[in-house]
Amino acid sequence: MTALLELRDVVKHFPVRDALGRRAGAVHAVDGVSLAVAEGEVLAIVGESGCGKSTLGRVMLRLIEPDSGSVRFAGEDLASLSPAALRARRRDMQIIFQDPFGSLDPRMTVAQAIAEPLRLHRVVPRAEEAARVAELLRRVGLRPENAGRWPHEFSGGQRQRIAIARALASNPRLIIGDEPVSALDVSVQAQVINLLRDLIRDLRLTFVLVSHDLGVVRHVADRVAVMYLGRLVEEGPAEHVLGAPRHPYTRALVAAMPGAQTKTPPLEGDVPSPIAPPSGCRFHTRCAYATEQCRAETPRLEGAAHAVACHFAASLPAPVERSAALGGGERLARLQGFFRGNAPSPIGMGDYA
Amino acid sequence: MWVWLLRRIGQVLPTLFILSILIFGLQQLMPGDPALILAGEERGDPQVLAQIRAELRLDRPIHEQYLYWIGNVLTGDFGFSWRIRMPVSQLILDKLPVTAQLAAMSFIIAVLIGVPAGILSAVKRDQPADWAANAVALFGISTPNFWLGIMMILFFSVELGWLPPSGYVPLTEDFWQSIATTIMPAFVLGTGVASVLMRHTRAAMLTALSQDYVRTARAKGLRERMVVWKHALRNALIPVVTLGAIEFGRLLAGAVLTEQVFTIPGFGKLIVDAVFNRDYPVVQGVVLATALIFVLLSLVADLLYMAINPRLRQA
Asked: If you count residue pairs, one on A and one on B, with CB atoms under 8 Å apart, how many are there?
């Protein structure tokens, strides 16, 4: 497998200005992130709100210009492309936003929204446009008769399906899902995750899932990258990162999943301000194992398959092994099964634990 | 849709009724006796005064006067001007085209300046173009119309001699002369409205530009120009259209000061003259006609709003 998307030392700071417009500092949204996404792989970027994961997702598509560092898509440096070439490239990379109520233009019918990229990138001849729109709608589980309707006539889950159909329209190679299900009801989440999983499998999509919900992540992701205050702290195959987390932060996140059975204490305190992130290891203010070294030296992300950025990753006590699938994840799995129609009703869920 | 329209018209009628009472009631509070003014030289003669009062039904109780007036209005008769002995409806029909022309020209100027300036300042937010547009808008809002009018007369008529300083030539008489007599007042009125439109367009555009569907449009690979025009502007204009209709209604109600400065014989001048002469039927007729125009325009605004906002279209 070759890397379809490669990020190297990407930095994005947003200037903060005072009332007089003077530069008063910067939000360190993304601070030196390197990542590679292989063709056909599903990478999840996880972390708390404000850790920079959405910014990172947008930088990947160059919807936001990074301050420094490079983003290569299919071996091509996106920064080197002319605006016209970049627009043409967008055919291959699409995004699904979190809020399905904001991401669809209220003055465009479903058909118009889906057909726009088709026309723009001349994906199909005009004559076949309607057929392609109908096919895409069917693909995401909506009836093609809905093509002429307006976005406001649909529920959140249906709108997100429309957004997915729109993202698929140009046959992209890479799709970024920026919290694609977190705005939806839990039961609808399961349906949309199923849909995404099927699409990823059937269309052999490369997918970057930006999410704070580990329950969602573990059902979709091949690999997981954990972000904290603009930096990656751990990255590796999903079963390793979620099953045997090595970084204290990841451990705390995994322990916070409903139903988790570990001895890791829950995280205390708030995330420090990204305007003035802590020195050294950014997690030291909340880490139970922090030492003088953590305050002074920034740990590097080290390790081949399963990398971690912690000075003491090797010497930390082993986390209590989690039983295979637990709590929120299990419940979600059952809901998923239910909506596939091959599992017993999720009613009476109390009896499984 | 038709049910909605009927219901909407049903709401208009009580509004107009209450308004007619207000108009009638308020002018009773105006100081000065119309009979005295009309009697002129003979104001000392009680017999003449009594005769005038009887003729104008001023000696009847107020509610009787009102019922007489409103009854006639309902049959389309707005009464006679006491002073110039002309049917009020005739006066209104004479002045309305003047004010309508002025309002239309002002509105075109306002839209041509205000909307592009609003778009520009939203797209170039926090850049010199934005600052310039905001400064001009602030100037437009805070400059009194009569002062700007006088300055324009001084510059374009007195100094340069390009345009007539006052007066009015109807469109049907001489098209270019008509434009020449109205362009300055239209500009004066238009700049004020342009500033309001600019501020609202800017705010609506900023909101639209920060929406995910605009981000989506960019991610689709659309040119920035298309993103702004096709996605952001089409959504941003929804509230601006409503505001525009209301502003147009205000222009149609006549611009008292501007019409005075340029001596344009429109609604504004008509009503000022009528008030000073205690010409009650004219005041009542003009105010009622203005209110009717306003109410109709807000109905048009609602219809436009429905036409461009798919969210309101069904049901």
From this structure: 72
Among the partner-chain residues B218, B223, B235, the one whose CB lies closest to the CB of A106 is: B235
Taking an 8 Å cut-off on Cβ atoms, the answer to whether A120 and B220 are in contact is yes
Distance CA A92, CA A175 (A): 8
Which has more confidence, A321 or B120? Answer: B120
A103–B213 C-beta distance less than 8 A: yes
Task: Identify the band that residue A330 occupies on the pLDDT scale cut at 50, 70 and 90.
Answer: low
Chain B (208-227) residues lying within 8 Å, Cβ to Cβ, of chain A: 211-213, 215-223
Residue A72 maps to a domain: yes
Residues 6+ apart with CB under 8 A from A257: A214, A215, A326, A327, A328, A329
Asked casually if ipTM beats, i.e. exceeds, 0.95, the reply is no
Q: Do B310 and A152 touch (CB under 8 A)?
A: yes
d(CA A44, CA A210): 6
Instruction: Compute the nearest-CA separation of B216 from chain A (Å).
Output: 6
Closest residue on chain A to B222 (Cα): A87
Rounded to an integer, the average pLDDT of A187-200 is 90
The string of pLDDT tens digits covering residues B227-242 is: 888 889 988 988 888 8
Judging by DSSP bridges, how do beta strands A206-211 and A42-46 pair with one another? parallel
CA A130 from centre of chain: 31
Q: Which of B212, B222, B312 to mutate: most A Cβ within 10 Å?
A: B212
Please indicate if any CB of chain B lies within 8 Å of the CB of A95. yes
What are the tens digits of pLDDT across the range B265-314? 888 888 888 888 888 888 888 888 888 888 888 888 888 888 787 777 65
Please, are residues A47 and A227 in contact by the beta-carbon 8 Å criterion?
A: yes
- Residue A238 belongs to some domain of the structure: no
Instruction: Tell me whether residues A102 and B217 touch, CB distance under 8 A.
Output: no
Domain contains A302: no
A117 vs B: CB within 8 A: yes
Looking at residues A76-80, what average pLDDT do you find?
88
The partner residue sitting opposite A63, judged by closest CB among B218, B222, B314, is B218
Cα–Cα distance measured from residue A348 to residue B178, given in angstroms and rounded to the nearest whole number: 83
Per-residue confidence (pLDDT) for residue A337, from 0 to 100:
66
Q: Is residue A25 part of a domain?
A: yes
Torsion (CA) A100, A102, A103, A104 in degrees, nearest 10: 90
Domain residues for the domain of A126 are 3-228
CB within 8 Å: A106 and B310: yes
Percent of chain B with pLDDT over 70: 98
Residues of chain B found within 8 Å of residue A117, distances taken between Cβ atoms: 220-221
Distance, in Å, from the CA atom of A37 to the CA atom of B67, rounded to the nearest integer, reads 83
Cβ-defined contact of A89 to B221 (cutoff 8 Å): yes
Indicate the DSSP class of residue B31. S
Q: Which CATH number does the domain housing residue A59 bear? A: 3.40.50.300
Flag whether the pTM goes above 0.90.
no
Nearest CA in chain A to B314: A153
Q: Which residue has the higher pLDDT, A94 or B57?
A: A94
Q: Name the domain count of chain A.
A: 1
What are the φ/ψ torsions at residue A73 (nearest 5 degrees)? -115, 125
